[in-house]
């Protein structure tokens, strides 16, 4: 049954079949057919897009899930959007459940804020609206000069905990680092559970170096400074031994985060929790990138189950590791598309979401 007004066209901009699955699910929920578009790679690896139906005066929604080749994924999205723009579409909404390069949203030493570049390219290509989910930093929305709807996957993950973990009342929500404590607190308050924070583990490059804390020189250099000026140096940080703030003994530990890619920190956290007496360990994340040997590391680790949503296709990883489970979030994306197309309020999809969520 069609749940929308006329003039709606949905395209999937992926050339890889496994990446089109989410688009098909969304189209089925809306009761519409996927629009006819041909996306493929030339022999010289250039991306070519051919729109094969009229989009003049229509609301176009371009659904793009990130495949293993993220740069090709970006070009497919940009060229599809631009093709719709030059074909006189009335509006073009990008649906990127996982926003690529979202971890590069802060300045490194002599690097760049790549997320800002991504936003500029998408707006320049012709996007008039963006639907995404659980941005790595909510402030990324400020990089765009178009409306951005940052949906949340937490209701689906919370529902999974309540329905699929029988004794979840004996659980504790765990942040694997202080940076994840706010997300863990949000889960704990909604489930009426306790919280634990792992502190002192070796931090990755993003959380430790991204904001320039390693930029000051380790020794005093006065060659470029006026002799009368004595600029105090920043004292280098010294990480304390690993500690767990909170009781996990005899409890189920549920580690929550937004992205699970390099699983080393999750595996280390699971080992620490096991040593502290946790008898079962779950990992919950919105985006399951699971690069490289992540499935093998998860299979060999103390983690009992990894639960991610289908914002990113990971069927191959599930075959390699039975511990990986998937939660379908196509329902909320389909509802967002329906409301935007019909001119309805989006506030229903953000009910009970606080400013710090």
Number of helices: 10
Tell me the distance between the termini: 34 Å
Q: Low-confidence segments, ≥5 residues, pLDDT <50?
A: none
Question: Got a strand count?
Answer: 14
Strand count, sense and barrel status of the largest sheet are: 7 strands, mixed
Overall residue-averaged pLDDT value: 89
Shape call: globular
- Helix proportion of residues, in percent? 25-40%
Radius of gyration: 22 Å
Strand residue content: 15-25%
In the sheet with the most strands, the strands line up as 10-9-8-11-12-13-14
Order of helices and strands: EHEEEHEHEEHEHEHEEHEHEHEH
Structural notes for this entry:
It is globular and about 60 Å long. Helix 1 packs across helix 10. The strands form three sheets. Strands 10-9-8-11-12-13-14 form a seven-stranded mixed beta sheet, sandwiched between helices. A five-stranded parallel beta sheet has the order 1-4-5-6-7, sandwiched between helices. A two-stranded antiparallel sheet has the order 2-3. The model has no long low-confidence stretch (mean pLDDT 89). 38% of the residues are buried. The chain contains ten helices and 14 strands. Helices cover 29% and strands 21% of the residues. It is of the alpha/beta class. This is Phosphoribosyl pyrophosphate synthase-associated protein 2. GO terms for molecular function: ATP binding; magnesium ion binding; ribose phosphate diphosphokinase activity. Binds to PRPS1 and PRPS2. Keywords: Acetylation, Nucleotide biosynthesis, Phosphoprotein.
Structural descriptors:
7-stranded mixed β-sheet, 10 helices
Task: Write a short abstract of this structure.
The protein is built from 10 helices and 14 strands. It has 357 residues and is an alpha/beta fold.
């Amino acid at each position: 049954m069609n749940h929308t007004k006329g003039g709606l066209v949905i395209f999937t901009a992926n050339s890889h079949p496994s990446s089109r699955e989410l688009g098909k699910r969304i189209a089925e929920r809306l009761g519409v057919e996927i629009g006819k578009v041909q996306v493929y790679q030339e022999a010289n690896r250039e991306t070519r897009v051919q729109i094969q139906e009229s989009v003049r005066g229509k609301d176009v929604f371009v659904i793009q899930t990130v495949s293993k080749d993220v740069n090709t994924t970006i070009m497919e999205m940009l060229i599809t959007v631009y093709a719709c723009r030059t074909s006189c579409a009335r509006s073009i909404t990008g649906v990127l459940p996982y926003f690529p390069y979202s971890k590069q949203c802060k300045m490194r030493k002599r690097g760049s804020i790549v997320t800002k570049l991504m936003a500029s390219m998408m707006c320049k290509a012709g996007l008039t609206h963006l639907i995404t989910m659980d941005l790595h930093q909510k402030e990324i929305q400020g990089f765009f000069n178009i409306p951005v709807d940052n949906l949340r996957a937490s209701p689906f993950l919370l529902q999974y905990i309540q329905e699929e973990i029988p004794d979840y009342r004996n659980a504790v929500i765990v942040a694997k680092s202080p940076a994840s404590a706010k997300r863990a607190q949000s889960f704990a308050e909604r489930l009426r559970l306790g919280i634990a924070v792992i502190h002192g583990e070796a931090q990755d490059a993003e959380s430790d170096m991204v904001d320039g804390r390693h930029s000051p020189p380790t020794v005093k250099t006065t060659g470029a400074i006026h002799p009368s000026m004595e600029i105090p140096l920043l004292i280098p940080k010294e990480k304390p031994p690993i500690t767990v703030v909170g009781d996990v003994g005899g409890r189920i530990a549920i580690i929550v985060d937004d992205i699970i890619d390099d699983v080393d920190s999750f595996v280390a956290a699971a080992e620490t929790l096991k040593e502290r007496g946790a008898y079962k360990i779950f990992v919950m994340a919105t985006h399951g990138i699971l690069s490289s040997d992540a499935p093998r590391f998860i299979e060999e680790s103390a983690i009992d189950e990894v639960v991610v949503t289908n914002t990113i296709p990971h069927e191959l990883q599930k075959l390699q590791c039975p511990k990986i489970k998937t939660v379908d979030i196509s329902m909320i994306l389909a509802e967002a598309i329906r409301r935007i197309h019909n001119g309805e309020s989006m506030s229903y999809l953000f009910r009970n979401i606080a400013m710090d969520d």
